[in-house]
Model the fold of this input.
Amino acid sequence: MSDGDAKKTIKKVVLAYSGGLDTSIILKWLQTTYGAEVVTFTADLGQGEELGPAREKALRAGIKPENIFIDDLREEFVRDFVYPMFRANTVYEGQYLLGTSIARPLIAKRQIEIAHQVGADAVCHGATGKGNDQVRFELGYYALDPSIKIIAPWREWTFKGRDELLNFARDNQITITKDKEGEAPFSVDANLLHSSSEGKVLEDPAKEAPSIVYQRTISPMEAPDKPTEISIGFKRGDAVSLNGKAMSPATLLTELNKYGHDNGIGRLDLVENRFVGMKSRGVYETPGGTILLQAHRAIESITLDRGAAHLKDELMPRYAELIYNGFWFAPEREILQAAIDKSQEMVEGTVRLKLYKGNVIVTGRESDASLYSSTLVTFEDDKGAYDQKDAAGFIRLNALRLRTLGQRKKTLKP
Done:
């Protein structure tokens, strides 16, 4: 089947639509290139932007009101995606809290649901052909609907650069904001967990990121000189209360973001390895997530058995890589999730923290399910709970192979 014939088979397409310049161009391009009916889907993931304009722009572009979907997914995002990921203390390449990566499977899931609801035969995303997001979206689409057709404009259209895109926008009366005319100094992706900035002024990893890049946090140097004290309550590995007040997942993360912002917490300047093979430099801000990660590790420190805790730490890099690469719906991620969730059954209690100039300082942790025993660890009289003489045999047994190796070296030494 030729390209033209393939395009003729697509009658209705669901577009992941932000209302920004790129997706507005894509919307018009779909109409002119495919001649298909376009359905727009805009997800509220807590990006902090007014989503009303997206509806107005879609209407102006000729989209029928019944074909405009704007969904508030904040609670689902935190409850079903962010929290499961944080149960594993997930970081990619030792630092990145996966704020962009974890949002993509939810967007893909809802897009496929809408496609089924409206009888669409295709879905479309605005990710470029150089990045990770194209992989994440499309792996999600195929996992949820193996027969769905996918349109990836950045891999299909003939525009050779930003100038040609802007000319197309002008020719089709698509509004171009002034910063886009002069080209934005960097691109931004944001949701309730984080903000991500990359490109343009950030492309040289040797140069310090300008202060205008940071949107979710004040500078640690400008943060208050007095620490902020908070407490987080956990149940089955998930944060359920803040300062003694029960909160929904999205509400709690929103509040933690405020604390993180005010105390300069969660900034990260990272050169990472993309799944598609290149290195990229990004600046991330994850204020609430950074606090949550430290608190979760603190409550695990007294409620998780050593074997379980160490196994989780061994599994985490693999789990993080699966999410980063877009395999949220893959069976291996689900298998790992089952193991992680099992480990969290008794991870409950309260963690107290001080937030100070970019730092998250754990000051206390307590739990009815604690495995910590002051009787065992005390340097004072433990009333017979632990016989220190037993340690001698324990050490000799563990040293047996080392002593054997040492004897061999001594015997064979020239």
Observations:
- The first helix runs from residue 3 to 8.
